[in-house]
Design goal:
610 residues, alpha/beta, six-stranded parallel sheet, five-stranded antiparallel sheet
Length: 610
């Protein structure tokens, strides 16, 4: 049964909402009647579109001083966080840290989406009120983000009063532009997606292709947003600015959706009490997506500011990058831009839709009950191992599959062996032969060294990969720096040169300076991905925490270490993780943690959905 809108009592219901007109102009497969919209309102939205294109092409004189505003989705609090939401946030944090290294003012926004039917149902199932439920789950996100070394700048909750005020103001602005009307709707509704579905996109028995559960037949009298009015504007936006949606294959998906014809969508729910009331009809609440998308703007308002739309917009909008999972691409690349056009605001500069993390070949999600518990991973192996594995082994944008064996092998090979062992054995040799003191500046030590040239090329590669959001390739480039350092020390064999004494011993001391300079550069270049590991490297190189926190990407240039610098006492940087062992009764024993094991937090009973 395809969804259909029954446009009822137009003359009686629309004059209140849209006194500017009463006849129609847009045809979609949902409508039995036709609607028109004033041409002057279309032109107003067109100006917003053109502003977006100029703001996105890098030609603005103010771009260098504009903040880099980065967002994750606002995570739905029907259940505690899972690895899918952790993955998005880890990637966003790495991007934010890289931008800070470049000297940008970064506003990294994350938060929780706390309204809707699923939230009320989850609260009822746990015997708590929706507000109490949201408080608990929202805090669980903050706790996990702290454990994963997520350095966000803003955490917005859609139950914040300042957010509600901005949502109502935005709704009224779109209403005044003639883009909201009331009508009956009948269709197939996925509760987990919080979205009406077209029958053609469903599986057998009307099952949602994402959650594999049957959609419910529903009929409601709701308010609708005139999405179809913005079809041409959206097409032009994507044509003029193809980088708006990335990766390119996600852009193709979005263009296909738009070409197939956009239909107006419901932005209110008559049957959902837990939500923001519609300003002109308190019997209905605002649709959870229309509500949550505005969190990207409401998060920009400062606590001391009066909660109004213009103040929030002037505090950093437009967003530089919306980072999302591919399952919510339509909301961010179609619905959200059209909403902003209607309100007359600039569009975000880029929407990046990454792939799913899979387990047993299936998307992990709360609704599917096959999640990977991120708290277990971080408490068993530490944040650096978790962050590194998912950013290195999942090509950003594509799907990626997790297995514990691969996780342990990669982390041991790269962090414990390539990086950790190189630092430990070099500092050990320095302590034994040079009293932990550098004999010469690293710039002088590397004169005529091919290793310096190799490192500089790999650093340049890493920079480009970070800028292009190719996080896996950036990690690979940094690990290659470590491989080059290991090859150098193996070839030079300074332990043998020290035994020879004289000029050979002096050459060996210079070799150690060169390798430790390699380690310093690795610490800076990998710090967006493994901030704690990078700090521990810097600490062993004799730097203070303040010095580490003040580094920039310029510190990847060769020549940071100076003669006379005293290194710290060598200690293991990253302990190898032992594979699971099987006991005599055939039960697998847990892998040995890479860091001291913290007390485990109680496992949440609910499962999570991306």
């Amino acid at each position: 049964m395809a969804g259909r809108i029954n446009y009822c009592s137009i003359q009686n219901s629309l004059w209140l909402l849209n006194p500017l007109h009463s006849k129609a102009s847009i045809t979609t497969t949902h409508f039995r009647n036709r609607l028109t919209f004033p041409q002057n309102l279309y032109s107003y939205s067109k100006r917003a579109l053109l502003c977006t294109c100029s703001a996105s092409n890098g030609e603005s004189n103010s771009e260098s001083t504009d903040p880099f505003v980065l967002t994750t989705p606002l995570y739905y609090v029907n259940a505690p966080p899972h690895m899918g939401s952790a993955y998005t946030t880890i990637a966003a944090d790495a991007i934010a840290r890289f931008q800070r290294l470049l000297g940008k003012k970064v506003i990294f926004i994350t938060g929780t989406d706390e309204h809707g039917e699923k939230i009320a149902a989850a609260a009822a199932a746990s015997g708590s009120s929706p507000s109490e439920h949201c408080d608990v789950i929202s805090q669980s996100y903050k706790t996990l983000w702290k454990d994963l070394d997520i350095a966000y700048d803003k955490f917005i909750r859609t139950t914040d009063p300042k957010h509600e005020a901005i949502v109502k103001e935005f709704y009224s602005r779109v209403l005044a532009n003639g883009d909201i009307y009331k009508a009956d709707y009948e269709g197939l509704y996925c509760v987990n997606c919080e979205e009406y579905k077209d029958e053609k996109e469903l599986l057998e028995n009307h099952c949602c292709p994402i959650h594999l559960k049957p959609c419910l037949a529903r009929k409601e009298d709701n308010y609708f947003f005139a999405l179809s009015k913005y079809q041409k504007s959206l097409e032009e936006t994507l044509t003029q600015n193809p980088d708006f949606v990335q990766p390119s294959y996600r852009l193709n998906e979005v263009q296909s959706w738009i070409r197939s014809g956009l239909r107006d969508f419901s932005i209110s729910r008559a049957s959902v009490d837990w939500g923001i009331p519609v300003p002109n009809d308190t019997k209905q609440t605002i649709y959870v997506w229309f509500d949550a998308l505005l969190g990207y703007i409401s998060a920009l308002s400062e606590e001391k500011d009066q909660s109004n739309l213009q103040t929030a917009i002037s505090s950093g909008w437009p967003a530089s990058l919306h980072l999302i999972g591919k399952d919510i691409l339509r909301f961010h690349a179609v619905y959200w831009p059209a909403m902003l056009m209607s309100a007359g605001f600039t569009l975000p500069k880029k929407v990046f839709g990454h792939g799913f993390l899979t387990k047993d070949g299936m998307k992990m999600g709360k609704s599917l009950g096959n999640t990977l518990e991120p708290n277990d991973l971080v408490h068993n192996f530490g944040p650096d191992a978790v962050r590194y594995f998912f950013l290195k082994e999942v090509e950003f944008g594509n799907d990626g599959d997790y297995s514990e064996e691969r996780f342990i092998n990669i982390v041991n090979a790269h962090l414990a062996n390539t990086i950790g062992n190189l630092l430990s054995r070099t500092l050990g040799l320095l302590k034994k032969n040079c009293q932990s003191t550098l004999v010469v500046d690293s710039a002088i030590a590397a004169e005529g060294s091919a290793l310096k040239d190799t490192v500089e090329k790999l650093v340049a590669n890493a920079l480009v990969h970070y800028e292009n959001l190719s996080l896996s390739s950036a990690c690979e480039a940094v690990v290659e720096i470590g491989n080059a350092g290991n090859s150098y020390i193996d070839e030079r064999a300074p332990w043998s040169l020290f035994k020879q004494g004289g000029d050979a011993s002096e050459a060996a001391a210079k070799d150690l300076v060169i390798v430790l300079e390699v380690m310093r550069i690795i610490a800076v270049a990998l710090s967006p991905v493994t901030p704690n590991l990078s700090w521990r490297i810097y600490e062993q190189l004799g730097y203070s925490n303040d010095q580490f926190n003040s580094v920039t990407w310029n510190d990847t240039k060769w020549g940071g270490l100076k003669g006379g610098q005293v290194m710290a006492q060598p200690k293991p940087l990253f302990a190898r993780i032992e594979q699971r062992t099987e006991s005599e009764d055939g039960v697998k024993q847990a892998a040995k943690p890479a860091v001291k094991k913290k007390e485990k937090k109680p496992k949440a009973e609910a499962v999570a959905e991306a």
